[in-house]
Amino acid sequence: MQQLISLFTDYTGKGNPDLEAMPSSGSNRKYFRLQRDGISLIGVHGESRDENRAFIRLAKHFGEQQLNVPQVLAVSGDEMYYLQEDLGNTHLFDAIKGGRLTGVFSHDEKELLHKTISLLPDIQYAGARNLDFSVCYPLPEFNRRSVMWDLNYFKYSFLKTTGMDFREDLLENDFEKLAEILLKDGSHTFMYRDFQSRNVMLSNDVPYFIDFQGGRKGPVYYDVASFLWQAKANFPAELRDELIVTYIAALRKYRPVEEGDFLRQLRQFILFRTLQVLGAYGFRGYFEKKPHFIQSVPFALDNLRELLKEGFDEYPYMCNLLKKMTDLKQFADSRKRGLEVRVYSFAYKKGIPDDASGNGGGYVFDCRAINNPGKYERYNNVTGLDEPVIKFLEDDGEIVTFLNAIYPLVDQHVKRYMERNFTNLMISFGCTGGQHRSVYAAQHVAEHISKKFGVKVSLIHREQNLEQEFRKQ
Hints:
Elements: H1 2-12, E1 18-22, E2 30-36, E3 39-45, H2 49-64, E4 72-75, E5 81-85, H3 92-95, H4 97-102, H5 107-126, H6 144-159, H7 168-182, E6 190-191, E7 200-203, E8 206-209, E9 216-217, H8 221-228, H9 237-251, H10 259-287, H11 291-310, H12 316-326, E10 340-347, E11 363-366, H13 387-396, H14 398-419, E12 424-431, H15 437-453, E13 456-461, E14 466-470
Parallel strand pairs: 10-12, 10-13, 11-12
Antiparallel strand pairs: 1-2, 2-3, 3-5, 4-5, 6-9, 7-8, 13-14
Helix pairs in contact: 5-9, 6-7, 6-10, 8-10, 10-11, 11-12, 14-15
């Protein structure tokens, strides 16, 4: 990479920099970190002059609009190499790793996401201000041609690889309808096109935006769909809804928004973006043999399955075809199998519950050290679910202290099971008769896990012949 070394030397006056290759993403661009005497810059070699030129000119324009993008510092004469500001190593994608792996996002992770999406309208509106869209590559505008390119990208690079038999003419008819709906709202805004957490860098917890060279003039919905339905981001529905509210509030600085209309149009772009990324994953994964993209396919298929539950009456043939595609046997392993936690109460004299999953059981907690309501006749006909017993146990206080010691242990276990994609966890509480203390404890722990983690929880009060299911949220 002598060209980058020469650029570094000419720009900084420092020769012989250390050069470190950096991981590349889905593109063919190569990135390097060049360092010397406390100066650190990022060198880029792109194989497409037009794509390089788009990034360089867009970065300059966005910088003039005071948007958070890396500054381009030096460019080779042939525009095949350039140096840009070094923003460090922290991608938003990595900063939200805990949430991505478990589906449970911490306060700090949520704050970063809200901060990021609240800046998106600035890129879309301020970024479009006085922008010469002719610099955009490969097209200056999101138009019918670009829509059909992406839909056919899905058809040829993903759908056809499944071996499914389908009527291309009927599918094309629905493609045409989708394109018409996507293009019905013209807008003079910048469409980032690949707005997702991998393309956001964090410098001192401030989001900076990279890899926008594929952007063009286009509607704002596409970027919202790209960010919130990024395949591996694993955002739960509740968090997506919160982030949409934050985005709409920021968008209202630039234009009035009717929320219902916005959400209806956004849903069309979610479908379109999901098909587009499946096409990209098919090409990059199946044809270029890049494992990262193959690993992303199950997440995108799960997004598509969720989307198809409500259906799209506008596209009857395509909708039916997509449902059949997601049900193919070859994608059976791609279905998201979330963790199920089974919580039992039981009587020790009748034995510890068997583990129906075959994994040999999990935690078993002994409640018999806690003061027993069962020794008083007035509690004979009530259980740990009834107010008299609840009051007795909570006024006594021992069971509250007991559970406060258990919650952190259970939380850590559930979190690690989710991170490791385990599907079964068993937690049992035993007491003398399986009626009071164990029932109270099992009920509270089941409710706690369901509320905190949103996973499926099956609660079985064995000796009371009572079962309850907390569905995944």
